[in-house]
Design goal:
Layout lengths: L2 H12 L3 E4 L8 E4 L4 E6 L3 E6 L5 E6 L4 H13 L8 E4 L3 E5 L4 E2 H7 L5 H16 L12 E4 L2 E4 L13 H20 L5 H21 L1
Antiparallel strand pairs: 1-2, 3-4, 4-5, 5-7, 6-7, 8-9, 9-10
């Protein structure tokens, strides 16, 4: 599909038929989708992500707040260019990005569903992080919900915070858990872990890091 036709669909069928809201400044985006042709496939802290059946290779990320963050994400994608560990930027508008679709399961859901996470996924993400640093970016907020695996390969699907400064330990801590707990026990026996357990671990980790940060 030509980009002109696709952007026309965004303007006529997507943007007028969605509502993006949030309960608070630190809560994720809530998506209400009234379109008959666009499917909601995800949401995060800033945006909702949508797919049109006519072009399953592209997705549209629509910002629901902090539109200035969109410009920063555009610059991140421009620096990344085309690299196998990331999506790529097709085009963008005032409040949306058109991105190459990466279809797969994130690591959080893989653990919940009992889908094995091979070590190749970890290596792919490490390569992506090293590449991002080589082009002057800071791979920030890389965690189990922002990493997707597909056919044994790993991809970082959210780079919106790569412009931030400081040290983010999320990926390092996840790797430690992968090698010390997941690989020798969960991977070996292929045990699905209930959502409430994994979600409790995630929340506990976030609280621990906040307390740790405040104590320094």
């Amino acid at each position: 599909m030509k980009i002109e036709k696709y952007t026309k669909l965004i303007g006529s069928e997507l943007l007028p038929n969605i509502q993006l809201s949030t309960d608070g400044p630190f809560d994720p985006i809530i998506v209400k989708n009234y379109s008959n042709t666009w499917q909601t496939i995800g949401s995060g802290n800033y945006a909702g992500v949508f797919l049109h059946h006519s072009n399953p290779k592209w997705v549209v990320k629509v910002y629901g707040r902090n539109p200035e963050e969109l410009k920063k994400e555009v610059e991140v994608y421009k620096r990344l260019g085309n690299h196998p560990s990331f999506s790529s930027l097709i085009d963008y508008g005032d409040n949306y990005l058109i991105l190459r679709r990466i279809d797969g399961v994130n690591l959080f859901n893989a653990v919940v569903k009992g889908i094995r996470i091979p070590e190749s996924v970890i290596h792919d993400v490490d390569k992506g992080i090293a590449y991002a640093r080589s082009v002057g970016l800071n791979p920030f907020d890389v965690h189990g919900k922002n990493v997707v695996m597909s056919n044994g390969r790993g991809y970082i699907v959210d780079v919106s915070d790569f412009y931030k400064q400081g040290k983010c330990r999320k990926w390092d801590d996840l790797k430690k858990a992968y090698y010390k707990i997941y690989l020798p026990f969960i991977y070996k026996y292929n045990i699905p872990i209930p959502f409430f357990i994994i979600n409790s671990v995630r929340k506990g980790y976030r609280l621990f890091r906040k307390i740790k940060k405040g104590s320094i």
